[in-house]
Design a protein that fits this description.
The two termini are about 30 Å apart. Helices cover about 65% and strands about 0% of the residues. The chain is rod-shaped and about 100 Å long. The model has no long low-confidence stretch (mean pLDDT about 80). It is mainly alpha-helical.
Amino acid sequence: MKIMSGALVAVLMLGASAAAQTPPPVMDTPSPPPPSANCANVPAPPPAPDGATISHSEMTRQRATYDAWIASYSAQRERCVEEIRVLRAQAEANAVAFEAAQAPYVAASAAWVTQVEVFNARASSTRRRDPRSVNN
């Protein structure tokens, strides 16, 4: 019987050792989409003309330059706002999935804490000594 117990313990120890050496599974999480718009590189606006001295034709030309810039800026801004919205939604979904994945670990930790407290309460009340222990 002692041989069977020893063999069982050896098998369990070898299995635990092999499990400890197994790398954790790789999470199949999608990578974020590549940025579609360079949100940090916004072209500078054209300088405002001097309304006191500019001619009518030059004001018309400057206004056309400004209108082209504002159209380009607005399109880039809309792309960036949408990209940020998508990335925030993806981050929120990842956070929810992460929290859900933690539930088994939280439950296991709580169970361990409870059982250690039960064990400590029982051990302190009975003060059992293990004859094989040198620390008791």
